[in-house]
Amino acid sequence: MPTETSSPVPRVVVHPERPDGVWEALRALAEQEPMTLVDAADEQDVVDALQEPGAVLATYRWSPRFLQPGLSWVQAMSTGVDQFPLDEFRRRGIGLCNASGVLADCIAEHALACLFALTRNLPQHRDDQRAGRWTPRVGHELVGATLAVVGLGAVGQQVARLGAAVGMTVLGVRRTPGPVGSVAEVLGPDRLLQVCERADALVLCLPETASTRGLIGAAELAALGDGWLINVGRGSAVDESALLHALRRGALRGAALDVVDPEPPPADSGLWNEPRILLTGHSAVLSPRWGTEWTKVLAANLRSERDGTGRVNAVIG
């Protein structure tokens, strides 16, 4: 008589560097789903836990030491996956899923908050307060302005919705032009310069790829003119020397960078002391809800493993 074979209980190895709330959300999940959690204390703990077959690594950080025999797949704690050796994963048959869509609304709100802060001179008002100065400053309205969103994934689309709700005309740039809700016009990357010329504000929501590195350089910033730049995607998309030059010669009005390359900037970087740059320390995605929402993605993928269906947010199947 045939006997049923049960699937092995998944073992999830959790990197010690993780956002607040992740471990608590995973422990709550473990009370509902069959799984074993490994709370790695350091990198060596991770390496040791990846010796047994079938391990799932939950991490944002990557080390070549994690390419151990037991690593089955990785659930990234990030949307971008440029830190992982993708070709090596493919060669070894290691799966990779990202956190695309997790708290897209939070990142989009951060982008709009940065834009409001720049256009209404909020950093300068804080400087005035600290110096004991009462200084009226002329700000700029967003109603009727043109917002260009480069990268129309989950975050970019939410940025577009928020911008349209404020009363902005929204342009979008993505690899495959086509209708997108709240976006008046979607154009391909070959039209980026024209989009910059038409925009009052440019919001970057891009992953890091070979085609996005250095995408915003001197020509694009010159085309943006006296506008504003917001980056909540990847720091490598912006030529920081060109950005500093555009700000110092008085062309660009301001920039808010949640991401830079490298992070943090070197101590002698001009980004620290440029008064028209607002640095927000890669905080756009940070929220008390992050651990819970990210864990939902992991839970869906663990169930997919058990049921034999495709994983969600799969970068490498």
TrEMBL record:
Keywords: NAD, Oxidoreductase. It holds the Pfam family 2-Hacid_dh_C. The keyword rRNA processing does not apply. It comes from the Bacteria. InterPro entries: D-isomer_DH_NAD-bd, NAD(P)-bd_dom_sf. One of its GO terms (molecular function) is NAD binding. CDD domains: 2-Hacid_dh_1 (cd05300). Residues 113-284 form the D-isomer specific 2-hydroxyacid dehydrogenase NAD-binding domain. This is D-2-hydroxyacid dehydrogenase.
